Amino acid sequence: MTFIKMCGLRDEATVDLAVDLGVDAVGFVLADSPRRVSAAQAAKLRSRVTERTVAVGVYVKMSLDDIVATARAADLDHVQVHDLRSADDVRLLHDAGLTVIRAVNNGAGASVSEDLGADLLLVDGAVAGAGVTWDWQDRSAVPRGRWILAGGLTPENVARAVETSGAWGVDVSSGIESGRGIKSPELMTAFANAVRKADVR
Ligand SMILES: O=C(O)c1ccccc1NCC(=O)[C@H](O)[C@H](O)COP(=O)(O)O
């Protein structure tokens, strides 16, 4: 079964729906963004997440100290970081008890073949949360093993994206929104259904 992560959730009803849809992970953006939530808001949202769903703090351009502090304040034990620079960065987050998803923005300089020791890789479009796709056939952008595909996924393209790229999981934000930062229950449902339908093919 393809791992599904829905990112940029900002209100309790949306988190409840994601949990009801059986998604595997939800992401709360704690970095500067139209989708940003405070650590206190993330803690509230996190409390709605049941055991089978992973709650992930999402970060870019924040210090490692701030990442650890906000993840702790929000009771998050998974972090997705878009600008990890070194294995030392990852080690520091691991030492703080965090599971680390290293997000690589395609074409932005970082390489998926460089092993920083993160627990999971997420390969995104050029700009995080912008709904931009990338060339899923580009084997140099595709990591070995388990990895999550992100960037411009929608209910319409997700089945083809998984088939083309061979990704283990998918992550979506813009493609389940009716406007920037506003999640659509219909699109969330359609996205989860599209992935599940592709899984049984
Ligand atoms: O969503 C944001 O605004 C954001 C800001 C800073 C760091 C990460 C951010 N989002 C990450 C994601 O939503 C997803 O992991 C990924 O970029 C997919 O986004 P989309 O192309 O919109 O589906």
From TrEMBL:
Query: Could you provide one GO biological process annotation from this protein's UniProt record?
Result: L-tryptophan biosynthetic process
Q: Which of UniProt's keywords are assigned here?
A: Amino-acid biosynthesis, Aromatic amino acid biosynthesis, Isomerase, Tryptophan biosynthesis
- The lineage's top-level taxon is Bacteria
Q: Which InterPro entries does the entry mention?
A: Aldolase_TIM, PRAI_dom, RibuloseP-bd_barrel, TrpF_fam
Q: What is its EC number?
A: 5.3.1.24
Which residue ranges does the record assign to the N-(5'phosphoribosyl) anthranilate isomerase (PRAI) domain?
A: 5-193
Q: In which pathway does it act?
A: Amino-acid biosynthesis; L-tryptophan biosynthesis; L-tryptophan from chorismate: step 3/5
* EC top class named in words: isomerase
Mind telling me which PANTHER family this protein's record contains? N-(5'-PHOSPHORIBOSYL)ANTHRANILATE ISOMERASE (PTHR42894:SF1)
Give the family per the record: Belongs to the TrpF family.
What is the protein's name according to its record?
N-(5'-phosphoribosyl)anthranilate isomerase
